[in-house]
Design a protein that fits this description.
single chain; five-stranded parallel sheet; 10 helices
Length: about 230
């Protein structure tokens, strides 16, 4: 079962999400919170797999709550849900540790697909969107001294020492927005092997999911944002 926590200050919105998600086999809504502070507490108590998080809430907003959840020992992936189609919310959500971003105007099927994706450890953003968003995101981040001028080859950074050569290649292709199928084609391996490489990269680098592996790669100079 995929355990889901809903965090939204509007009871009707929570009820609607619960109805949609509970209709999907294998999904269980284990709790609801009316603000970010309660969401952080319930994430610790209930240990959900996915948290559906509103952005704007009283007491503690969704961005602050996401930072707290992602900084804790919770294994939950956070899906940010908002009515505001604003790019700054997207960047802040990614920076806070969210693994996906979805507008509340999305169709029910899109919400279900998003929760499935996060439960699998995938990012919600498509490879095409990942390329555009992450490059812009990375361009706004400060880079540690000496990293900006480092070569873009993956074996140029000491931070990549725990990775095998094939895992470094996988990280580089992730950072370029490649899907598992595209990585498999470029490396001449099966998709199951790619999934293993991705899992090893996340584990060895201490990264939550593949979208944050992309961010990590940009921030550590593995690949440079385009002009």
């Amino acid at each position: 079962m995929t355990r889901i926590l809903l965090v939204d200050d509007q009871a009707l919105v929570r009820a609607g999400f619960e109805t949609i998600l509970s209709s999907e086999p294998g999904f269980e809504v284990v709790g609801q919170a009316k603000d970010g502070a309660e969401g952080v507490r319930l994430a610790t108590e209930l240990q959900p797999d996915v948290v559906c998080m509103d952005v704007q809430m009283p007491l503690m907003d969704g961005l602050e709550a996401t930072r707290a959840i992602c900084a804790s020992d919770s294994h939950a992936a956070v899906l940010m849900l908002t009515t505001f189609d604003r790019e700054d919310f997207l960047f802040e959500a990614l920076s806070a540790g969210a693994s996906g971003f979805l507008l509340k105007t999305a169709e029910p099927e899109q919400l279900i697909d998003a929760v499935h994706a996060l439960a699998r450890g995938d990012a919600l953003l498509s490879p095409e969107v990942t390329r555009r968003v992450i490059e812009r995101f990375a361009a706004t981040r400060s880079v540690p001294a000496g990293v900006a001028s480092a070569p873009t080859a993956p074996d140029a950074s000491a931070d990549l020492a725990p990775l095998t050569d094939r895992e470094r290649e996988t990280l580089l292709l992730l950072a370029r927005g490649r899907s598992n199928a595209e990585i498999a084609k470029e490396l001449f391996v099966g998709e199951a092997t790619v999934k293993t490489h991705v899992s090893n990269v996340l584990l060895k680098l201490g990264i939550r999911d593949r979208i944050h592996a992309v961010i990590w790669a940009y921030e550590h100079g593995v690949i440079a944002p385009r002009g």
